Amino acid sequence: xxxxxxxxxxxxxxxxxxxxxxxxxxxxxxxxxxxxxxxxxxxxxxxxxxxxxxxxxxxxxxxxxxxxxxxxxxxxxxxxxxxxxxxxxxxxxxxxxxxxxxxxxxxxxxxxxxxxxxxxxxxxxxxxxxxxxxxxxxxxxxxxxxxxxxxxxxxxxxxxxxxxxxxxxxxxxxxxxxxxxxxxxxxxxxxxxxxxxxxxxxxxxxxxxxxxxxxxxxxxxxxxxxxxxxxxxxxxxxxxxxxxxxxxxxxxxxxxxxxxxxxxxxxxxxxxxxxxxxxxxxxxxxxxxxxxxxxxxxxxxxxxxxxxxxxxxxxxxxxxxxxxxxxxxxxxxxxxxx
Length: 338
Fold this sequence. Notes:
The protein is of the alpha/beta class. Helix content is 51%, strand content 8%. The protein is built from 14 helices and six strands.
């Protein structure tokens, strides 16, 4: 069967969790094999006990999270008989620390994630009054009314495409939609666990919550979509709506997107290959349709969810802006700016 024939078979697929679990050989109640069957952490070895103790002690003393590499080198320095400075033991440590966080033995904030971080020094002082006023205005806390609360809906956008974060966020920011981008499966656990209380709060208030996904159509891109939804719906038991914005088989066929060889070294390749063969497609290829096609698809999805509430939604945004302008003018008057 050709790649095009395989795609044509999937034109009406909705890419919902149930279907993704099936094609990746997962049980419907499965999240990942990392999740302990019992909500209890087994610390059967000396290095495991030392690792937990080190993280708690270091976090208390530093007031900052530690890296898994720091835990690794701490254990190596102890010269324990059951832990060595090699990849095998490091991978065991990574898996153990994740499980410790899942069951609540370690707080999610105690470990530094593999995100890109940057510090830029800020020069203190003032050289221009008008510039200082503008900075004060820009730093005002967000006090506007949330339009999503008013229409009793909410959206989260999830993506693996960190390089496209800015382009995706141009639409998210326009509609006050949070965008969550990840690097690695471990980071997904952490971020979703941190936003879980807010999602629960919204669902408890009766809000209609949506999870929108943008990821490549390849072995890992579809599985990360599955993983997002499994964490939200199976692990956290959230009754929310899911929608894959991009990429889908229909988009690939409709836009005639150029393929790439699927990575045979990807551990998820064998499941993907059964459904789609050895070709894959990237979100980035949507530019062959239009430079802003990805943004258009996302905006279209958001507007469809807002639906008939768009007038109320926009009215709240306009009122927020009007009051913000009023505050700006009063600050300028008080401080004597031009």
